[in-house]
Write a structure and sequence with these properties.
It holds the Pfam family HSP20. Keywords: Stress response. It comes from Theobroma cacao (Cacao). This protein is about 0% helix and about 40% strand. The protein contains no helices and eight strands. The chain has strands spanning about 10-15, 25-30, 35-40, 50-55, 55-65, 75-85, 95-100, 105-110. Strands 1-6-5-4 form a four-stranded antiparallel β-sheet, with no helix packed on it. A four-stranded antiparallel β-sheet has the order 2-3-8-7, with no helix packed on it. Strand 4 and strand 5 form a beta hairpin. It is elongated, with a radius of gyration of 18 Å.
Length: about 120
């Protein structure tokens, strides 16, 4: 987490919150894509929102107990709220998200950045 933002590293802004603490998540990097995996058991597609605000990926989710839920722990309400600082190399316009079997998968394409170096004369 001590690397610079523009080297392709995603940094958390806030962590998950909820009835039982932070939800599990994982991240994979390669030169073309960043993949994120969030465990969101019990949340339906309509209960999760993924958005980009400036240079930040925002993930919010609200679970409300539904009629007929057979609950062992009987948690009636839980919410998830996290944000991740996106590196400059991310293609924000083409981020994709998919919810499958209680797992939120997010794919963030990486674009090649050309770095411009300017030498500063020391006086």
């Amino acid at each position: 987490m001590d690397r610079e933002l523009n080297d392709g590293t995603i940094l958390p802004c806030r962590s998950w919150s909820g009835g039982e603490g932070r939800a599990a998540w994982d991240i994979k990097y390669d030169e073309n894509e960043i993949k994120l995996r969030f465990d969101v058991p019990g949340l339906a597609k309509g209960e999760i929102k993924v958005s980009v605000e400036d240079d930040t990926l925002v993930i919010k989710g609200d679970y409300k107990r539904r009629a007929g839920d057979d609950c062992w722990y009987c948690r009636g309400y839980s919410s998830y709220d996290t944000c991740l600082q996106l590196p400059e190399s991310c293609d924000r316009e083409n981020i994709k998200a998919e919810l499958k079997d209680g797992v939120l998968l997010i794919s963030i394409p990486q674009k090649k950045l050309e770095r411009k170096t300017i030498d500063i004369e020391i006086q």
